[in-house]
């Protein structure tokens, strides 16, 4: 269910400062779980989930029709091609739930994420394939967000008209650091109305490492949800520093409070610098521990990455070989 948003309520921006004491403990537990490792069955299912919640991304200044064709081909064929032998060998040795999962699964990311001017290239590439994948587009003056609202809305409308099923919008971090959350709310509300008309998922990028405090991260997360964001996203991937699990804890706190107050579930999307399966697994454990198993699906959890898929598939191949010898 899409998050329709609510009227701006300044009381929702208040955060319990006592929660700061829990942040390091929560982060340490996530890292500890990843370092200790998982049973092969559990790790295989988690790695499979990471593939399915991935927004496979290309947001380079050098992108063109050929690079987007390669992105789409990678999204639709890479995992199945690389794991074909491992999955077939599992079938020859035994039949189990994990084997059934990997033989019936699409093994594709949830979306390909591109810039608005490359959406049409992605559509053309997908139409040449026998499979479908949704297209997400960054918009709204990515990555800075320092453009007039009318221009931001125009770009969102353009991306949707070209075939984008999801919009990753950037905010004006300058306004956030000034504390002008009312204006940010109304800006995002205007963009939400465009997405609602097109039945499009709205993800709002907070650029958490460019916000001046955890309190500002929390307030901006809550403002974005009140405005109707279906996901809150950590980063553009263009910031000088990448988001940390600590930022993720703050965002999860806001999501829980919003859900408790409204009944609406909002998703979370870490992005930026997530290149290794261990990093992604730590985010998965954070979401599982803080928000619950209900959030472990693509409608409520995404990971934005350009090179993570290769490392996840490499690790998954190792784990599937372990399963072959264990049964």
TrEMBL record:
Top-level taxon: Eukaryota
EC number: 4.1.2.4
Database matches in Gene3D superfamilies: Aldolase class I
Keyword Methyltransferase: no
GO molecular function, one term: deoxyribose-phosphate aldolase activity
Location of the active site: 233, 269
Metabolic or biological pathway: Carbohydrate degradation; 2-deoxy-D-ribose 1-phosphate degradation; D-glyceraldehyde 3-phosphate and acetaldehyde from 2-deoxy-alpha-D-ribose 1-phosphate: step 2/2
Keyword Heme assigned: no
Keywords: Lyase, Schiff base
InterPro entries assigned: Aldolase_TIM, DeoC, DeoC/FbaB/LacD_aldolase
One of the record's GO cellular component terms: cytoplasm
Catalytic activity from the UniProt record: 2-deoxy-D-ribose 5-phosphate = D-glyceraldehyde 3-phosphate + acetaldehyde
Any GO BP annotation: carbohydrate catabolic process
PANTHER family found in the cross-reference section: DEOXYRIBOSE-PHOSPHATE ALDOLASE
Family: Belongs to the DeoC/FbaB aldolase family. DeoC type 2 subfamily.
Protein name (database record): deoxyribose-phosphate aldolase
UniProt organism field: Acyrthosiphon pisum
């Amino acid at each position: 269910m899409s998050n329709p948003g609510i009227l701006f309520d300044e009381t929702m921006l208040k955060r319990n400062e006592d929660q700061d004491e829990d942040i390091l403990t929560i982060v340490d537990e996530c890292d500890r779980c990843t370092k200790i490792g998982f049973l092969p069955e559990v790790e295989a299912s988690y790695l499979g989930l990471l593939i399915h919640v991935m927004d496979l991304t290309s947001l380079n200044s050098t992108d063109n029709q050929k690079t987007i064709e390669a992105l789409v081909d990678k999204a639709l064929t890479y995992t199945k091609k690389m794991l074909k032998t491992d999955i077939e060998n599992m079938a020859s040795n035994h039949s189990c739930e994990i084997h059934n999962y990997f033989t019936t699964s699409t093994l594709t990311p949830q979306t390909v994420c591109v810039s608005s001017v490359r959406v049409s290239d992605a559509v053309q590439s997908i139409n040449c394939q026998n499979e479908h994948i949704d297209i997400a587009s960054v918009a709204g003056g990515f990555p800075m967000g320092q453009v007039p609202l009318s221009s931001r809305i125009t770009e969102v409308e353009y991306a949707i008209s070209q075939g984008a099923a999801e919009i990753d919008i950037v905010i004006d971090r300058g306004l956030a650091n000034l504390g002008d959350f009312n204006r940010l709310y109304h800006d995002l509300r205007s963009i939400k109305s465009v997405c609602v008309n097109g039945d499009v998922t709205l993800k709002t990028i907070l650029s958490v490492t460019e916000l001046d405090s955890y309190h500002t991260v929390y307030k901006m997360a809550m403002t974005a949800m009140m405005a109707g964001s279906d996901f809150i996203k950590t980063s553009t991937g263009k910031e000088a520093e990448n988001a940390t699990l600590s930022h993720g804890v703050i965002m999860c706190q806001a999501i829980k409070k919003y859900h408790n107050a409204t009944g609406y579930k909002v998703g979370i999307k870490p992005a930026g610098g997530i290149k290794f399966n261990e990093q992604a697994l730590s985010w998965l454990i954070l979401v599982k521990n803080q928000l619950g198993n209900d959030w472990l699906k693509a409608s409520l959890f995404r990971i934005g990455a350009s090179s993570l898929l290769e490392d996840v598939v490499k690790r998954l191949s190792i784990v599937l070989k372990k399963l072959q010898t264990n049964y």
